[in-house]
Structures are given as C-alpha cells and as structure tokens.
Request: fold
Amino acid sequence: MTISQNTTFNHHYNEVSQKPVHNIGFNVKGTEQYPIQRASEAQRFKVQRELAYHTGNKSLFNCRRYAHNQARLSSDGKKLKASGLQVCGSSLCSYCANKKIKETSEDLKLVLRWCSRMNRTSFFGTTTHSKTLHIGQNDSITRAGYVSMRKTIKSIEQDYTIKLVFFATIETTYAKPEDYKLTSTGEYVCDTHSHLHWFISFPPEVDKETRIKALKRIVKAWDRGVKREGGHTLTKKQNVESLTENYRKAGLDIKLLDNEALDYEDLAGYLGKLISGNSDYKLSQELSNYRVKQGKGRSFLQLLDDIIIHGLEADKKAWINTVKSSYRKRRTFKNKYFKEALKEMKEQLANQAYEHALDYVNVLIGNKDIPIEERSTMIENEMRSFIMSSQGIKNDTFVPTVDIDIPKEIYNTIGFYNYTSLLLDLVVRAGRGELLKEFNLLKAFVDTNPHFNNPLYSRNHQPTIKLLKILQDIEYKMNVMKKLSYDLEVE
Ligand SMILES: [Zn+2]
Reply:
C-alpha cells in the first residue's frame, strides 16, 4: 500500500506551515517563561502521522492505524488505553516511547540493585560535544563517541580480566523557540544538543586508582570518537588528567554512586537529584531520553506537543530531520554483562514471586476445592503484583468510565479511511461524558455488525457506508465543539 492514499492532511500541513514567523508569540530575545503544555493523545496521533508522512517512514506513519486482532479502547476521560493495535515500537513514537521508557527504567532498577548487592563501585557519567546545526550530524557524532567508548571498555575488561556493567543512552534536547539560531539566509533553525549518559560498574577487586585510570581512558575514547566524526568536545577546556571520582566540568560529569544510595526505595529519583540538582528528576527518565528539562532544551516528545500547540516550522523541520536521521537506530545500549546481570535478577525475582504467590494462595484457599485453572490464575496475578511492588511500580489506578471493543475488520476500515484520531478523541470525550450518544451509536454499530468484512475497503459496501456516516457525523459535531472551545489538556 502506498502511504499517500486517502490522505487529507497535506492540505492541513501546508496551512499550518505557512504561518509567518513573526506570529509565533514568543519573545525571541527570550526572558519569558516558555510554558510546558501537553497535547492530547488524539492530537499526537494525528500530527505525528502528518509529520511522519514527510519522512517517508511507513511504520511510524501507520502506528496504531490498524489492529492485530480485536482492538480495545478505554478511557477515564483523561487517559486513553488501547490494546490489540499494530504499533511501530520506536522510541521516537509518542505512543511507543512510553512503554520503552518504562521497560528501560525497570531494567535499570534491577541492575543497579544487583550492582549494589555485589558491592560493586558504580558511576554515572555524562559526556557531550559542541552542537552543530545539522541534526543528523549531531547524532552521528554522539554515536561515534559511544562506539569509541564501547571499544575501550572492552579493552579495559581484557587488560584487567574484569567484567564491567555498562549502559548508555543518547539524550537529545531541542532548542526553545527563543533560542532558535538565525542562519545567514534568514531562516530560523531549531538546533539540538546531544549528550551521552552512561552507567558503569566495577567489581569490588578494582581499586580506586585503577577505576580512575579506566574512567580517564573512557573519557578520552569519547573525545577521540567525537573528533573522528568531525565534532568537538568541550574537554579541551579542562584537564582530563585531573579527573576524580566526582567530577563536574563543562561537557563532562562523573558521579560516584555509593552503595547505600543504591538500596534506596526510590533510588532512581535519588540519583536523578544527584545528577541534575533537580529534586523532581528521575534518573530513570534521564537515562531513557525523555526528560522534560526546565532549563535549556526540550525533549523530543515535548517538541511534538509544541508542534501541535504552536505549529512552528523550525520545530517541524527538527522533528522530521530527527526521524530521518535516526529512526531505526538504537538510542540505548547495554553491554553483555549488563544483560547477564539483568537476566540473573529477573530469574531471582520470578522465583521469589512464585514462592510468595504459592504460599499466599495456599493460605488463602486452605483446601483443594478450587479448580486447578483458577488456582494458576490466582498464582499468576499474585506473582505479577509481587514483581510490580518489588520494583516500586504502583498498581494501576486507571478506572475507565467507557470502553469499546472493535473487531479488527471494523477498526482497520476506520484506519483506512483516516478516522483513527477521531475515534481516539471520541473515546476520551465519551469518558468525560461528551458525545455519549454518538459513542453509543458506534458501539451499537459494532454490536449489530459482528460479521463486518470489507477486505478491499470498498466504498460501496453497505455496512461501510453506514459506518462512515456515523464517523462523518461525529466529525462534524467535533469540529463544531472545537470551534466553541478548543481546549488543550495541560497537566
Ligand atoms: Zn508507535
């Protein structure tokens, strides 16, 4: 299938992109506080698709547009939950990134805990380089720095016959509109700034002197990699030879993480505080790319929300160039030993959870009257909640006020005719008590058409005609509502 089929958004895109720069509403000299505003899921879906179209990236373009099987959508009027959909899985996707962040944070917590138990000495480092105006170039410089570091870490492991736990993530921040660069051709450019955040853990037999030696080699490797790719590091201004276990200079941060700190319940938050000096900060978020920085830059996710809210051309270009230059590329890296430690922790946790659940269920039941299948379901649930609580994950407080199950064939027809974002919007609005009549009409359509099937998405298929009519009617009502009060969710 070609991605230009049935698309109505080119018109919309041009309309927004022609907005003159002087209308942006920002103080370009910039003392004004730049407000952090959040867009809705439906808006993100729609605008991300519009932007992805310009990158030629089909999987990002089609993320959530079709279902694997029956789609389930529910909402409490604020959040939207979906399952059964085909997703792209990219960390650059507004929808898929959240899942990735969660997984990465959970893995990190386990590995940090493991390092603490093993009495290892761990460090958190941030290395950076001077920015360039080209997003792709910026990204390749950061990656070159990482690759060089990785090789050196392997050499260190061989030289001392030790195993190092290493994790790294690329974080890119985007200049705020008041910090746009004005090029010689009179164009505003949103430039980016990339950092590599990394975690490294040494076994207890390595002494302090050796650790510092190793850290120096790693920092120098970063410098070499960056230079090889045509970039510049800021470490020229400092003397790497004077590196200590706690080091903070322009472009280079090293923090020693003491083992007591590693045992804290909210360890991720604690580390984040150390690193950023901001108490609201979560290290896990920092390590997973999507921090919303109060300071200089914006995260990639915030960039999308700003495009939705303000529609600035320079932001759109930055978004598109990022996807074009790094869509299929990894942004987080785990070395072999990190993975081994993680595997060990997960196995241990699963065993503990099983034993706990078995005890719990045996006491609870007390007899064998409960059927086997029910027992195993109870054990599974108990294991899951044990694992979640031991990882500090709160039980989900999401209580949907509406939900709808849509068979794959109907969901895909809605996607084919580009009504997915409308559908998402409808579910959230219905969750708030808006457009309930229309929502129920759609629900009734699903119930009365259990054998809906239009594999070629023909417009002459009677039930499809009926479905499109319902959707068009909803679209009309929503447009009217939006004109009355175009309300953005601000968290
Ligand atoms: Zn996605």
